[in-house]
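Input for the complex:
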Amino acid sequence: MAISKKQAHIRNFSIIAHIDHGKSTLADRLLEATQTVTAREMEEQLLDNMELERERGITIKARAVRLSYTASDGEVYDLNLIDTPGHVDFNYEVSRSLNACEGALLVVDATQGIEAQTLANAYLAVDAGLEILPVVNKIDLPSADIDGARREIEDVIGIPAMDCPAVSAKMGTNIEEVLERIVTDIPAPSGDESAPLKALIFDSYYDSYLGVVVYVRVVDGQLKSGDTIRMMSTGQTFQVVDVGVMDAFGLAKRASLSAGEVGYLTASIKSVGDTRVGDTVTLADNPAEEPLPGFKAVQPMVYAGIYPADGSRYGDLRDALEKLRLNDAALTFEPETSIALGFGYRCGFLGLLHMEIIEERLEREFNLDLITTAPSVIYEITKRDGEVLRIDNPTNYPDPAEIEAAYEPVVRASIITPTEYVGGLMDLCQDRRGEFVDMKYLDSTRVELHYKLPLNEIIYDFFDALKSRSRGYASLDYELEGYVQSKLVKLDFLLNGEQVDALSFIVHEEKAYGRARRIAEKLKDNIPRQLFEIPIQAAIGSKIIARETVKAMRKDVLAKCYAAILPVRRSCWKSRRRVKRRCAS
Amino acid sequence: MMTTNTLGLYLHVPFCAAKCRYCDFHSAPAGAELRVAYVTALCRHIAFMAKRAEGYTVDTLYIGGGTPTLLGAKPLVGILDTVRKHYRVAADAEITVECNPVTNAAGLFEGLRAAGVNRLSIGLQSAIDAELSLLGRAHTRTDFERTLAAARAAGFDNISADIMLGIPDQTRESLGETLDFLLGADLSHISAYCLRVEEGTPFFRMRDTLALPTDDTVADMQEQAAAILKKAGYTHYEVSNYARAGRESRHNLRYWKCAPYLGFGPAAHSYFEGVRFAAPRHTAGYIDAVTAGDFDRLVIDAAVITPHEAREEYVMLGMRLFAGVDEQEFAARFGAAFTDIYGTIDHYVAAGLLTRENGRIAFTERGMLVSNAILSEWLDFGEDT
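Predicted:
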């Protein structure tokens, strides 16, 4: 099949990198160099435009932009840059974005070399059949080792890199060479314009005027306004209102999109839940036979209860979650009631980072004070009567007598670390019930460790422990491997003899004692002292396994009380009552 | 008798030799001219209020500060003469003057004694010289001993000393030493206050660098002081006050029993005929107002105490006394039983925080230390509940 002239002038590519290796800065320089935006118009790191993303230096949502580049052969090329989320929580989104491309720039920091996410993303790109173009970045730094980084790319990933561009995105050095190599090294798309429409959804967002704006890569066929489209995973149909491309400043309407192109469509779609990332769009009256491969419905991996600190703001919390869900199909929530915390929501997240982002957005953008329970993974329980339960909330954990077998999710974790920290990190993984898989020397100074780790150990401050044991140098990536049978128990906490449901969690039997002790101690230090002492007990079923006591308050007295102090005292008392009432309500 | 038509007078002297680092009272060093003008104004104010107090017998009089003895014997005697000239003063009235251990000029105590002063309150604070200098006190333990000897030689036998608990760097051992010293001095009355770091004081600005004992340690110290003083025959009659039999401060008991008193001087408070009021906290302004005869300016924050507030004050202040509240008297005064108004107290009694014996409800030693927490369960001071 001959590639059309139009497609011959299109290059679709992503930039992949470990966090902080300079992905966004390189994207900015490409935009400037192609005069898609001038330096003056440039908002720093245009592609990461959510405030939170900029603060954390990571991309949460994918974005796409079209660059127009006049190459040294005199021809004008449309370069579609598809940004990818930069965190393990969003691996599926990354893989879909990569599937919309023919090539990827693999950015490697010349001072750091390959990190866990470099590898994870490179493997995703290889899996997606992409041409990988390595780019060594940060060559302006004195500690840059360009040839070392190139050698590492060849040795570890196994792709030629000795002649790859060496750039400083920060200083704008050698950016032209990157653009040239995109044109020469990355293949043009080769879709069939006359075949039935197949377009891959790689992102979408909700706009209050347009409805959902769907980002697609047209693989085969044509798409134009007025077409009736069908989502192949759900069979839902919509009438296309507009199609177009994304320039640096927003949406630019076009008459049609055809095979090889990256663009958007709008079709009065109300919810991003109807436009699932990875789904295939086809035409209702001339459908493709098969969808594009690789579609998965995203499943939350981590659950937590979110409650408003002020119970009267329950309605505000619901409105806020609904607004966030408009743009985040991976966020799930349903009402939950806790005896201790009142009314709230059980929320499902892709991972811990996703959870933190949602929490922060709720607090910042919606001004809510939240109480979040300890995160939990989904456990699978087979009961003696054969019933299989999926438990995302400790409160629903069945009576141990009814349990035939319990299963917990495990991940395949890859840790890349300087060699001197290997011992400490292996101890950490051991301590977190990890099962050693293998260890590979990347070079004489760095090691890649593979472990199978229970997900519930990873969500319990694993990342912080990893960073502190490696002085920040180790990097982590993981993917869900499956479920394994496990000895799980539900750990409850009792204050003054009464169980506090919001504090319960599910934990491996061996870990229960240590965790119970640590949490009981924390509670002891954080619960304000009262007139009477408060026993804190940790229990598995009716068996108490840890105990602490919040000692009774010893001193709350006004030592001096004469004439002058009485009016002051009275107003103190009134405000004290008000505070007490607020706390009680 | 304090029950019918007796009155307490508080006379404030807002001067001191140097401000202590923890002090937030209205007091400051002042020159001779201001001191003379102040005494004149104070006497005029005392004379002016006498009409209002007709029919009352003054049975407690307290000259506090500041350091009143800074004025010297003669002006203090002059003030007392003014009081006696305009008010009926009971023959057995308790007349107290506050002093500190350095202003013991020759003849001072003789002069006061001759003028009818029968009680002295000396600010010792600590018997450890290092703690005294940390507090910014200008005296030593030896100064106190000298002052005490001079007062006794002048005929004073009713002498109180103040000490502090929770001084930075204070330990149970050093407190023990101070208490031993006090027992050796054989005083009739001892006040032991917890240091509070008040906003606006030098201590407040220094608070991060001060080694202040924790609340638990201060609670230990309070228990330690109570145990030692009680063993030595003192009665622990109020949160911070201890007395030999019959030597309780009659003037301070007025405050805690909601009996009437008039205060004179800047920032002095009064409770008279159901109204609480105060004078502005400004010495020069006070003198100006009196000189101009504008006595209305000396009444601010006047509040008529409602029956509800009166009841709350009665409980709040009365419960400061280890004698506690008499249930019958309470019911007669407020028309309902204590426990009908404030709910059951059985759990506090069971926990050893309150006693309910001989018709009285009272805090135990341990309960008194957490009395705010319990009182705040009871009192609302007229807030809607």
